[in-house]
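Input/output pair, single chain:
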Amino acid sequence: MPANGEDQIAQGRLTVRDGAIILKLPKAVCLAGADEEDNVDATDEIHVAPIDEDMQQALTGLVGRDVQVRGTMIPAHTQHHKAPIVLMLEEVDPL
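Output:
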């Protein structure tokens, strides 16, 4: 998947770890970017970062369920990111 691309879609099951909502993917993905620091090796977890409180509540209500998420994927770059890839969430739908 391209790093920093808009409208990227992923599917998996939402879980919670260390206070973060994690999308557990059925199959590992890589992130490839223009710069070396944008590259992420294969992982089956994405930290889903909601853009506002309403989106946070929607995500919390879907923990434990299979969902499809859409947003921009970036590499984790702080200690607050709990998975190698972070998705800046724009939309979530239950499957």
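The mean pLDDT is 94. The helical segments are 53-61.
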